[in-house]
Every structure is written in C-alpha cells, then in structure tokens.
Structure to design on (111 residues):
C-alpha cells in the first residue's frame, strides 16, 4: 500500500515558513509543487494500491486513517485466519476463539 498525503502547495509553503521557520528552498516553489501534486494525483487515480489522505488534517486523524486502511486491507488479507477473508465478523469461529491474528491486532490497536 502507498499513502499519498495530499496538501495544497500554498499550505505546504506556509507550513515551511511558519512551522519550520525556514525559507523555502529552490525546489519548494509554488509552480513546482503544483506540478508535482498534479503528477501524483494523476498516478493515484489509476492505481488501486495508492490511498490519498488529506494531509491538512491533524496528525492524529491522519495516523488513524493509515492504521484503519492497513487493518482493513493489507493486514486483513495477510493475517485473517480464513483463506477467503473475514466477511462474517459476528459468527467467525477464529475470532470467537481468539485464534485470528488479524482480529487480535485490531483489538489491540483499538485500545
């Protein structure tokens, strides 16, 4: 999975100035950042493995999105005890008997 943290270049430049107390370098120009953003957004449209996340939200919200996307996609596919995936959450014997690594991970991260 690839996570694309999308931020408007104007906001990015303001963050550089305000938060980092720096002057943007030669690669951090509005036109360049807009062009790069356009390229990444075009790539994301055609690739199901890229997940675009609004990078203007809080760090906690972004972190939560990434954890949830990982849990519901790659980690579920890799760790679910059933070969065909877990689609019957309530009646899943592996979940009920606490033998599913994916469910254990999900339960621990929810704490």
């Amino acid at each position: 999975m690839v996570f694309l943290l999308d931020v408007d270049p104007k906001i990015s430049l303001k963050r550089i100035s305000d938060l980092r107390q720096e002057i943007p370098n030669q690669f951090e120009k509005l036109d360049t950042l807009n062009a790069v953003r356009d390229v990444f957004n075009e790539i994301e449209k055609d690739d199901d493995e890229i997940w675009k996340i609004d990078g203007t939200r809080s760090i906690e919200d972004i972190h939560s999105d990434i954890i949830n996307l990982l849990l519901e996609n790659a980690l579920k596919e890799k760790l679910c005890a059933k070969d065909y995936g877990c689609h019957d959450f309530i009646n899943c014997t592996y979940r009920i008997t606490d033998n599913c690594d994916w469910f254990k991970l999900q339960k621990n991260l929810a704490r």
The beta strands are 2-6, 50-54. The chain has a mean pLDDT of 85. The radius of gyration is 19 Å. The chain has six helices and two strands.
